[in-house]
Amino acid sequence: MPESPEVEALAFFLRENAVGRAVTRIDVASPTVLKTVSPAWTELHGATVTGAGRHGKYLDVDCDGLHLVVHLARAGWLRWSDALSQAPPRPGRGPVALRVRLSGEADRGGEPGTAPGFDLTEAGTKKGLAVWLVRAPGEVPGIARLGPDAMDVDRDGWERLLHGSSVRLKTALVDQSLVAGIGNAYSDEILHAARLSPYVTAGKLSDEALDRLSDAVRDVLTSAVDRSVGRKAARLKGEKRSGLRVHGRTGLPCPVCGDTVREVSFADRAFQYCPTCQTGGKPLADRRLSRLLK
Question: What SMART domains does the record point to (predicted)?
Answer without folding.
Answer: Fapy_DNA_glyco, H2TH
